[in-house]
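Issue: ligand-bound run for adenosine monophosphate - logging full I/O for the record.

Environment: standard queue, default settings, no custom constraints.

Inputs:
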Amino acid sequence: MKNIIIFGAPGSGKGTYSAEIAERYGMGHISTGDVLRGEIKNETELGKIAKSYIDQGQLIPDELMIDILAKTYDSLPAGKGVIFDGFPRTIAQAEALKKMLEERGDELGMMIELIVSEDVLMMRLLRRAQIEGRADDNEETIRKRFAVYHSQTEPLSKWFAAEGIRHTFDWGICKTKEGMLEAIFQEIEKQNA
Ligand code: AMP
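Outputs:
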């Protein structure tokens, strides 16, 4: 399977759709947010650094993040395809990912962008705060994460378009999780045919 980069604002469903795709096609799944939350839970040195950024709604510095990503990628079984969930979030990370994959004889594959309006995102994140109790899902931090997304991450959408691998899926058109999944699965199968 081709690698997949799943892309979208906080609350757009990257984790949910990644898990569904990984299960259906037997692919590896790297969620950088989950990796960092694991480090925080285990109270590692990296976890301490990560917490100070995550609690502020800020991004972890690129160099550190790229290093974590490469280590996680190399720990997965080769040849099945990997879903990158929450990475890259900056142009520097995207360029580093492309280079890292090329060095390993692999390529970016396809990018899936989830488009969801900000009202829906805020509603989902506040609901997730009640269910999962994530420390960064409070209204103030959510607003900061949206601002960081718009300034640092969103420009990447065009970067992927220029690579010729961007595929967009709009919640406003698909309307349900099932509708989104069906459209995403169809595109993945088309790209792997
Ligand atoms: P997520 O679970 O993907 O929403 O990530 C939660 C938080 O982890 C983000 O708000 C960032 O602080 C941090 N984080 C996750 N992935 C990255 C990344 N690729 N680059 C920088 N920071 C990240």
